[in-house]
Specification:
globular, 23% strand, alpha/beta, Rossmann fold
Amino acid sequence: MGLEAKTIGRWLLVLFLAAGLRLAAQENPLGDVHTAEPPAPRAPKDTRPVIEGTDNIVRSAASSPASNIRVDVNLVLVPMTVTDPLNRLVTGLERTNFAIFDNNQPQTIKTFATQDAPLSIGIVFDLSGSMDSKFLRARKALSEFLRTCNPQDEFFVVGFNDRPAVIVDYTSEVDDVEARMVMLKTQNRTALIDAVYLGVSKLKTSKYQRKALLVISDGGDNRSRYTDGELQRAVRESEVQIYSIGIFDMFAPTTEEREGPELLRSISEATGGRVFPVVDLQDLSDVAQKISQELRNEYVIGYSPTDNRRDGQWRKVKVRLMPPPGLPSLTVHNREGYYAPSQ
């Protein structure tokens, strides 16, 4: 073969390789994918004067399941549940059975509702190594909870061990959640605070104004980047009611696990929700169904604060119950307060 033919052959080979590289670059779907972990979101301050205490917002204001409720800036809405000394749900109370106070000042009740309406529910599910022996029953309890919810509810699941992640995005199909949960396994440590923070943040993009978070965990935090104080602030500023199922060990071996019940109690009760401790795993499904029932049976009170200053300050809310004669002492569960608008 002559020199000229060899030269032409080399040039053809170069052109062929170059064309192949360009084609591969065009077909590579990972070319623009970045795998670096994004920074954790910080919750912006929500200054709307709306309390979604026990997870709900005025049900009578929702004329359709998909309505995105917007409340008059001067109307504060306080959802709540009522229980008896045996921790049983009390329904059927009337407007006259309630009195409400804003920073210790009595307020006039303008609206009163008990109607059910769809809500957005975030599930925060512990997948750390200590949940290994409890995982199957906890997963079954989650299924029981979702199957007793309103069919129009939407929900997502945040799973966590060393770090949290959204493992099921917004859906109304329980089968979607169950199929994903079957594929998971427990391992590593517990970033509980980060997971709750992620759940609260994600609920800002929910379809419905009514929002709730269900936390299923067996102990305290030993891995989070956020602090307890940062989480408490985010919870206070949110419109989310938090319920927790605490699968606590009677003899917790670590400080973090011993502090777990108090952590869940503080963030839940601040929003008008509650913690349900579970010692016997057989009770998990019953507890999950009870929480679902509470979310379906709330009272919602609306009032216009006599203090209408837009000072961005924390306002404490107190509800006083005046039950009908013959009933035992009852307990009201409602959000602790709200931030007034700042402008």
